[in-house]
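Subject: Sanity check before I submit

Could someone independently write out the structure tokens for this chain? I want to compare against mine line by line before I put it in a report. The sequence has 170 residues.
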Amino acid sequence: MRVNRETVDLGGYPDLVVIYLGMRVRKVRGILRLLGLGPKLYRAHQDRPDGLLSHEDVIWSLFPPHWGARQYWRDLESLERWTRSAPHRDWWQRFLRDSGGTGFWHEAYFLRGGIDAMYGDMDGATGLTRFAPVIASRGRMFSTRGRLSDEPSGLAPVIDEKTYYSGEFD
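---
Independent answer below. Compare away.
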């Protein structure tokens, strides 16, 4: 008997964004950060923020612990609104001050074209860093919008580049 082959019609989702993200433990204290954060982020997506179409938990590896998710968003605008609201915004600000012995990354793929990637305090190659040159997140490479295009989002960043690199943020 032949396999029942199917596909999907994405015609209703022209601005679809698929984002993979992960948090990998780098130091022993990172286990506490990972275990403390997981339930909070899980509850955040359970509330079904506007634009989140689906969320799936992923275990990238057990040793070292490296957990994450795959999410489907209606469009970049709704994803950006969510990242700039609590609890994500607050968590991201804390992470940028101190990664807590973890590394965090995301890779986003856009139906209309383009890929965005960000890696914070990751040691060892993950995803696109396994083959593509790694560069500093400076200038237009500091934000998702900058990496994708020159169009500003109209939303204030969680932390702007000048503040982040000036030391005023610490």
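---
OP: Matches mine. For the report I'm noting this point. The domain at 17-166 is CATH 3.30.70.100 (Alpha-Beta Plaits).
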